[in-house]
Design a protein that fits this description.
Layout (H helix, E strand, L loop, with lengths): L1 H6 L4 H6 L5 H8 L11 H27 L5 E7 L3 E3 L7 E7 L4 E9 L5 E9 L12 E4 L2 E8 L6 E11 L8 E4 L3 E4 L5 E7 L3 E3 L22 E7 L4 E9 L5 E8 L19 E3 L2 E8 L6 E11 L11 E2 L3 E4 L4 E7 L2 E2 L3 E5 L8 E9 L5 E5 L3 E3 L2 E7 L5 E9 L6 E10 L15 E2 L5 E2 L16 H7 L6 H9 L2 H4 L4
Length: 498
């Protein structure tokens, strides 16, 4: 078994030329060192070197291809150093970012947007085609395949809220799409905005100017003066206040007028100072406090005030919301009928006027005097209607038998005051008898008088005196008591039988 196995280790040509040796000799031969390899020709070595060089070139080509098709550049980070900055303390927003494979980037663009998408900053352009630009050298460094920029300051001074966007534009030869990234929101806080903390009238109810208020009279609000309604207010942060707008309206929103008080230039280039018209009423300290500022509103009616604090450097921005006051009411001066007379005497509710049949109907004289303010209105009805607060007028009685005259006074707000007088005419002798002269003879044809015969020829009774009629014709019979008595008593009581 050993012989055939050993034979396999020998080359074929040696097996044919040498005789077979014993097993011991064979084992000794296998343990001997290997023969020295034969030297190959020089051309083979050169071919091997060329093949190695070709392999290295292919590997370099593959590496170059891999580098040529490497991943696109990316923005690894874009963030502000803090979320809020105080412009009043000289702070400016600072932005940091990291970019991978910056060698493939030709240009960087930085923009700032308002929350509604409006472009408010930039674009700021950074050219990387020849390395870092000069304005980025103090803040950026590039190591390997990464560009790192820390707290790059941005020239942005307008208060507001912003979001920044960084755009990478790769080299044109690479034919790669732009890469974008957006930062979180950044707030730039400017000077504290002025705000109307309080706005109030000195009183909510006034009486009309000229109203007499006495301790013994009814409870009334104090009258408004020539300065009109006075208002007071408090405004915070007056150092950034440009102006105050005071507007007067009706409760339904109708604007009656307004006034502007300027405290500083529109650009805020000068400190806040009080205008001359506010100096007697205001104090400018940590807050602007004004007390009893006259508005000039003194007519009867209802008023509401609005005060707006206009900040400096407002620009095209909208005005802040206005502060509204309570509704102020100026009540009219109370009206009063001071005098109302008929024929010079205090008017009574009803008059009975005797009128003889066939006699003209008498008239009467009415006079009045009303106390009231600017809203007082006087009417004499049924005619002539509107009249002045004081006057007198001659008026006839109506042939219909009844005449009513009404004095109506109103102040425009409260229920009217009314005084009415009724005149009623009557016949003082409704059953006046026909008197026949019985002593006279009827004339005859010859001109003589014929005396009546029979009972009618008896002498007539003497005429009875009529004290009631005498009383009607007397001046005292025109009094209201007598006329009322005549109207209400029955004929039997008046002894009207003849």
């Amino acid at each position: 078994m050993a012989g055939p196995q050993i034979e396999q280790w020998h080359e074929p040509e040696l097996q044919g030329n040498q005789p077979v040796e014993p097993a011991a000799t064979t084992a000794a031969i296998t343990l001997a060192p290997s023969p020295t390899p034969l030297h190959r020709p020089r051309w083979q070595k050169r071919a091997a070197i060329a093949a190695g060089i070709a392999a290295l070139g292919g590997l370099g080509g593959v590496l170059w291809w891999l580098l040529r098709t490497s991943p696109s550049p990316h923005i690894l980070d874009l963030s502000p150093s803090q979320s809020q900055y105080q412009l009043t303390q000289g702070e400016t927003p600072r932005l940091s970012w990291q970019v991978s494979h910056p060698q493939q980037v030709e240009t960087m663009l930085l923009r700032g947007y308002a929350p509604d998408g409006t472009l408010v900053y930039g674009p700021e352009t950074y050219d990387l085609s020849e390395g870092l630009p000069v304005n980025l050298l103090p803040y950026c460094d590039q190591t390997g395949r990464r560009l790192t920029c820390r707290e790059v300051p941005l020239e942005l001074r307008q208060p507001g809220t912003y979001r920044f966007e960084l755009t990478l534009l790769p080299a044109m030869a690479l034919n790669l799409a732009p890469v974008e990234a957006t930062s979180s929101l950044v707030t730039l806080a400017g000077p504290a905005q002025p705000r109307v903390v309080e706005l109030a009238p000195d009183q909510v109810i006034y009486s009309e100017a000229g109203t007499q208020v006495s301790a013994n009279g009814p409870a009334m609000a104090p009258p408004v003066t020539e300065a009109g309604i006075r208002v007071s207010w408090i405004v915070s942060h007056p150092e950034s206040l440009q102006a105050l707008l005071l507007v007067v309206k009706r409760p339904d929103g109708t604007t009656l007028g307004g006034r502007r008080f300027t405290l500083s230039p529109a650009d805020g280039s000068a400190p806040t100072t009080l205008p001359e018209e506010l100096k007697p009423f205001c104090q400018l300290q940590e807050q602007l406090i004004c007390q009893g500022v006259p508005s000039g509103m003194l007519d009867v009616g209802q008023y509401q005030f609005e005060l707006t604090a206009v900040p400096a450097n407002l620009g095209d921005g909208e005005l802040p919301a206005a502060k509204q006051s309570e509704v102020v009411n100026i009540e009219p001066r109370p009206v009063r009928i001071a005098a109302f007379t008929i024929n010079g005497r205090e008017a009574q509710p009803k008059y009975l006027v005797p009128v003889e049949p066939g006699q003209p109907i008498p008239g009467f004289q009415v006079a009045w005097r009303v106390e009231g303010g600017s809203t007082a209105r006087v009417e004499l009805l049924p005619s002539p209607g509107s009249v002045s607060l004081q006057g007198n007028l001659s008026m006839p009685l109506s042939p219909a038998g009844t005449t009513t005259v009404t004095l109506r006074v109103t102040d425009g707000q409260n229920p009217p005051l009314v005084r009415a007088v009724t005149f009623e005419t009557f016949n003082p002798r409704p059953n006046q008898p026909v008197i026949i002269n019985q002593g006279a003879a009827a004339p005859t044809g010859d001109g003589s008088a014929q005396r009546p015969s029979g009972p009618a020829a008896q002498p007539s009774a003497p005429a009875r005196s009529d004290p009631l009629g005498d009383r009607m014709n007397s001046p005292e019979s025109t009094s209201n008591d007598n006329l009322t008595d005549l109207q209400n008593r029955s004929p039997e009581e008046l002894d009207l039988a003849f």
